Amino acid sequence: MTKYFIQFVQSHEEFRLPELESLAKIENVKISYNREDYKKNCPFLIIEIDTEEEAIRLVKRAILIRNIYELWGTGKSYEEVHTRVKAKPERWPPYNYKSFKFTVSAFGSTCSSDYQVGIINTFAYLGFKGEINLKDPEVQFGVLEDYGLDPAPPTEPYMIYFGRLIASGNRDLIQTYNLKKRKYIGNTSMDAELSLIMANQALAAPGKLIYDPFVGTGSFLLTCAQFGSFTMGSDIDGRQIRGKTNRSIKSNVEQYHLRGKVLDTFVFDICHHPWRDNLWFDAIVTDPPYGVRAGAKTLGRKNPSKRSLTTKLIDGTPAYEEENSYPPTKPYEMSEVLSDLLEFAARFLVLGGRLVYWLPTVVDEYSNSDLPEHPSMRLISNSEQNFGQWARRLITMEKFKENIIGDRANIHNVKGLDNLSFVYKKKDVSPNEEEITNTKGKKKPGHYLFREKVGLVEI
Ligand SMILES: C[S@@+](CC[C@H](N)C(=O)[O-])C[C@H]1O[C@@H](n2cnc3c(N)ncnc32)[C@H](O)[C@@H]1O
């Protein structure tokens, strides 16, 4: 195996390794790295890969990887770096007569152009005779210094990496799918970067069928289709899907030239879905409604006793047959949404299929044991995006075992008790000890009564 080093973007740090692992799986590339070498406060990671062709494939659709370099030398000082570069002179000849470019950059610090030129000159012993071409070189070398993220950077870098640039990730896609440029968006449309990361987590690829049961304005249909999958979605609220004249999921599909990949969208309540029992989705990618912007609803009445015993007629026709008639809906508690989602995934995913979804949590109360579980689904990754008091976690699960009819999701015994959440008013009542433990005295998960805890209450 050959040593490379990855330069990640310095954001979404908890998402970087899961994305790397997903990319390796999608591209069937064997990678090896020391888990202890990965630091959230550092963008560099040394990794071993068999061939250069595989290294290029590994990063070609990466969102959180800027570049991958073949590692020529690393060390805490330039002396160490040069010793390592000089130890393998057989690497140099292929580049002797190629046009080339050197770059020098510092993570956590800045370096003047004089300093950069000085560093570049220390590599003169490589003896490259090709022309220097800053715009379109045949080969590019990078010197990357790591000064860490302390407010006062050290005078010398903690580590220096030197290598030949092999390939870059696909961060341009973030601009392509930028919500500001998208024809149709809603207030819950997912930002482009995260939607693309989710498509990678879902292992979206040609020939796969990916489904979003809470499709809204269809962000994931687009990004999963971008990577070649067929996609479909559904939502209880047809207005989200239809949008307004010339601005709808359909117009977005046209905008991104994804016709033929985004198959269709449907309007129905996921609790009363029409799918036949079969294993057919390769992935489910979704942002369930949890009330920060759009609360979940399911068909039914909040108070069934108010249900009229006779069918309401309008001019002799049942009211529900009117074009503008909508069936009544009632709140759909978050833990109920989650258990239904896991059970749906266990039933409808192919073996090895992935469920990728967001789980909102109250930061101070979250613990890993809060994660919903299902006997057929195993956890692949759990990455936090923190907003202070609350966070959302991108959960990736894989169906690893056939679903047995009757197997239930484990939402820590909160199922059925959660409708409690709708008796509170505004922020004046915070859940008490009794309410955050279940009937068996076990602590309820941090997302229990989530809306109340962050001040979002349905009355
Ligand atoms: C957070 S939004 C999804 C936004 C979407 N990812 C996007 O990019 O626009 C959640 C969606 O779930 C829908 N929803 C709520 N309850 C539902 C149910 N019982 N069945 C299906 N969809 C539901 C809402 O109408 C809303 O559009």
* Distinct compounds present: S-adenosylmethionine
Average pLDDT for all residues: 87
Domains (count): 2
Q: In CATH terms, what is the fold-level topology of the largest domain?
A: Rossmann fold
Estimate percent helicity: 10-25%
CATH superfamily of the largest domain: Vaccinia Virus protein VP39
Distance linking N and C termini: 60 Å
Number of strands: 18
Which architecture of the largest domain does the CATH hierarchy give at level 2?
Answer: 3-Layer(aba) Sandwich
For the largest sheet, list the strands in their spatial order: 2-3-1-4-7-6-5
Subcellular location: Cytoplasm
GO biological process, one term: tRNA processing
InterPro entries: DNA_methylase_N6_adenine_CS (IPR002052), RlmKL-like_Mtase (IPR000241), SAM-dependent_MTases_sf (IPR029063), TRMT11 (IPR016691), TRMT11_N (IPR059073)
Pfam families: Tmrp11_N (PF25904), UPF0020 (PF01170)
Question: Outline of this structure?
Answer:
This protein has helices at 13-27, 52-59, 78-86, 113-121, 172-176, 192-201, 219-226, 238-242, 249-255, 334-348, 450-453, and strands at residues 2-8, 31-32, 44-49, 65-75, 100-107, 139-146, 159-168, 209-212, 230-235, 262-267, 281-286, 297-299, 313-314, 317-318, 329-331, 349-362, 377-386, 390-399. The protein has 459 residues and is of the alpha/beta class.
